[in-house]
């Protein structure tokens, strides 16, 4: 990453916050501190600017050469409406810098919200289920600043969007690194005078600086064309969420497409999972237990240690972990559910439910995904 700017000198030679940076719409928290780097996600995770400011005070005494770098100025989070293409933000949970490419309207099925509908009996897949009504919720396709990826690797995979190859190898997957999907409430908006505030290979392909606009980064034609051509495998439609013993599991499935293999059709999905510890007690994920039901009539059980080769610890300092994985079926639809087993400091274990989610194919898909081609 680029070197930090040298500290401004004041009494005692300590780095000083820039003057004149006033918060907008944040009563009692003005003047607002400049956004600084490296990661302050634990304090920003709940929008706690007071704690953030306290940490900045402590950072003033860092050794020479270890100063914080100013990256922008906080804006008031939007309570209503959507963020526009080009909005700069910090992720409130994972702390990375990013920029909004475009919004998606998703249906959020939150099993923590009481429903007037009564419990359903065992369904066709053989597991109990609540009837949960979906509410419309805004998510954003975003670019992650490549400089921040090393700092979030312990609590999130360097998120990538995967897609299927266009040739005959039905198992070939390609990835575009540094793309993520972010919920509206996870965005801490900020502004910057930097004309290239995000380092990502797609930034200047997709966005251009226009000082007459707010935010001053607007979509190029290439971004619009890419979204239109590739929305079948980019599109986010359903989000599922459930909390067990203060561990919240959020699942977002994505349909990736169908490929032919050995005279049969194979349907592929990607699913992104976020685990959040809403309590102060440290816990560690030890095992996963999946049930995968296919419309073809098969029911598969998958057990294993950890997830993606990791057994993440969820603590007050690092309360969340996010990862993605894939599943394929020889049918156009199915669903998945299961549990994660966590361990407490005293060695006891408890199971956390993974909310059931559907695997649905896009019936109107006419052309295969085309990756990064315009």
Automatic annotation (TrEMBL):
InterPro entries: ApaG_domain (IPR007474), ApaG_sf (IPR036767), Hemimethylated_DNA-bd_dom (IPR011722), Hemimethylated_DNA-bd_sf (IPR036623). Its main location: mitochondrion. One of its GO terms (cellular component) is mitochondrial nucleoid. GO terms for molecular function: DNA binding. It is found in: Mitochondrion matrix; Nucleus. Residues 241-366 form the ApaG domain. Keywords: DNA damage, DNA repair, Mitochondrion, Nucleus, Phosphoprotein, Transit peptide. It comes from the Eukaryota. Involved in DNA damage tolerance by regulating translesion synthesis (TLS) of templates carrying DNA damage lesions such as 8oxoG and abasic sites. May act by stimulating activity of DNA polymerases involved in TLS, such as PRIMPOL and polymerase delta (POLD1). This is Polymerase delta-interacting protein 2. It comes from Anas zonorhyncha (Eastern spot-billed duck). The lineage of its organism: Eukaryota, Metazoa, Chordata, Craniata, Vertebrata.
């Amino acid at each position: 990453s680029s070197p930090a700017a040298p500290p401004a000198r004041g009494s005692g030679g300590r780095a000083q916050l820039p003057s004149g940076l006033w918060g907008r719409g944040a009563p009692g928290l003005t003047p607002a501190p400049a956004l600084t780097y490296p990661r302050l996600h634990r304090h920003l995770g709940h929008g706690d600017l007071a704690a953030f400011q306290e940490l900045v005070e402590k950072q003033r005494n860092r050794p020479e050469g270890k100063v914080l770098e100013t990256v922008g100025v906080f804006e008031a989070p939007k309570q209503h409406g959507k963020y526009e293409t080009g909005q700069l933000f910090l992720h409130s949970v994972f702390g990375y810098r990013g920029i909004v490419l475009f919004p998606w309207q998703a249906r959020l099925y939150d099993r923590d919200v009481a429903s007037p509908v009564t419990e359903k009996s065992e369904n066709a897949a053989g597991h109990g289920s609540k009837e949960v009504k979906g509410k419309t919720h805004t998510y954003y396709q975003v670019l992650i600043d490549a400089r921040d990826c090393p700092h979030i690797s312990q609590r999130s995979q360097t998120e990538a969007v995967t897609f299927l190859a266009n040739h005959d190898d039905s198992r070939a997957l390609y990835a575009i690194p540094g793309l993520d999907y972010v919920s509206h409430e996870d965005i801490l908006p900020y502004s910057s005078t930097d004309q290239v505030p995000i380092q990502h290979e797609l930034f200047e392909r997709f966005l251009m600086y226009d000082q007459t606009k707010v935010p001053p980064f607007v979509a190029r034609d290439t971004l619009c064309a890419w979204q239109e051509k590739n929305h079948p495998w980019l599109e986010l439609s359903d989000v599922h969420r459930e909390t067990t013993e203060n561990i919240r599991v959020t699942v977002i499935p994505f349909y990736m497409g169908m490929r032919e293999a050995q005279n049969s059709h194979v349907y592929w999905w990607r699913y992104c999972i976020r685990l959040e510890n809403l309590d102060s007690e440290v816990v560690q994920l030890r095992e996963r237990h999946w049930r995968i039901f296919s419309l073809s009539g098969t029911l598969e059980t998958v057990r294993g240690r950890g997830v993606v080769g990791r057994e993440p610890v969820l603590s007050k300092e690092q309360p969340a972990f996010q990862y993605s994985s894939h599943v394929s079926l020889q049918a156009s639809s199915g669903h998945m559910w299961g549990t994660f087993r966590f361990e407490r400091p005293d060695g006891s274990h408890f199971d956390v439910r993974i909310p059931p989610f559907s695997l649905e194919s896009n019936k109107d898909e006419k052309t295969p995904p085309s990756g990064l081609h315009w």
